[in-house]
Amino acid sequence: MLIIGLGNPERKYGNTRHNVGHMFIDELENEKPDDFILAKTDAFMNLSGQSVKKIIQKSKIKNQNLIVVHDDIDIPLGEFKIQQGRGAAGHKGVQSIIDELGTKDFWRIRIGICPKGRRPENVEKFVLQKFSKGEKEILKGVIKKIINDISLMSDVKRWTSLSNV
Q1: What are the CA-CA distances from residue 29 to residues 16, 38, 130, 161 (Å)?
Q2: Which domain does 53 fall in, by range?
Q3: What is the rounded distance in angstroms from the CA atom of residue 103 to the CA atom of residue 10?
Q4: Is 91 a catalytic residue?
Q5: Which of 119, 117, 110, 118 is nearest to 142 (CA)?
Q6: Would the pTM count as exceeding 0.70?
Q7: SS (H, E, C) 66-110
Q8: What is the count of structural domains for the chain?
Q9: Which residue in 18, 22, 70, 91 is the catalytic one?
Q10: What are the tens digits of pLDDT across the range 31-68?
Q11: Closest among 115, 112, 116, 118 to 145, alpha carbons compared
Q12: Rounded to a whole number, what is the largest CA-CA distance in the chain?
């Protein structure tokens, strides 16, 4: 299995909402999982497909064994969903991957970034904002829960649409 975290490459974006995928990979690397190849995109979010395609070709992994981790503004902070074969739902990075791979037949770990009950008007500006200290603690907790869930599942074929939403 190949797990790729989406995010923006420049350091200034390190703790922003759009870089949740990179943050996830950083945490997962600390666990040193044997069953997974880990990678982060090296392109800006809206061009994620180019980076993902390059990583897949290098690792020779099939699309069905790909897990993409990304932020999701439609899911409240502290919640997540794990799904396969779904559309981009407006996420430009995911749409870029679907376009480059020519399929949506891959797994997605969608991590919520939106404060409960409040969807921002300016989404582009919101996803580039840094998390507050309290939000980072909530995010850290959900990342640990996801890592625990995926480490318990050695056979991804058994995954159904998982979530804590």
Answers
A1: 19, 8, 22, 24
A2: 2-163
A3: 28
A4: no
A5: 110
A6: yes
A7: EEEEEEEEEEECCCEEEEECCCCCCCHHHHHHHHHHCCCCCEEEE
A8: 1
A9: 18
A10: 877 778 999 999 999 999 999 999 999 999 998 899 99
A11: 112
A12: 42
Closest among 17, 114, 100 to 55, alpha carbons compared = 100
CB–CB of 23/139 below 8 Å?
A: yes
Residues in the chain: 165
Q: Per the structure block, which two tokens stand in for 67? A: 């897990």
* 91's tokens: 């996420």
Q: 127 with 113: CB under 8 angstroms? A: yes
| CATH code (residue 126) | 3.40.50.1470
Q: Are 87 and 72 in contact (CB under 8 A)?
A: no
129-138: long-range pairs with CB below 8 Å, 24+? 129/16, 129/17, 130/15, 130/16, 130/17, 131/15, 131/16, 131/17, 135/77, 136/15, 138/77, 138/78
- Amino acid letter, residue 123: V
